[in-house]
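User: Structure please.
Assistant: Input sequence and predicted structure:
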Amino acid sequence: MDRDSTGYLLFHYVALLAIIFGVVALLEGLGIEVSLWVGVAVAVLVGIGYPIVLSVAGIEPEQWS
């Protein structure tokens, strides 16, 4: 897929949301109470970490660089 396309960018935003919801669901599945602030912390950490990981891997969307 072309890294400059809107579809590629949309894919990564959907993946970012899926990872955030997946981490929150995993925490709840482990019996950890996920309050609003824990959810916000997860969203911030994933929101900062995901683009960094993609950048290091060299597969980030062109619009992010």
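The radius of gyration is 14 Å.
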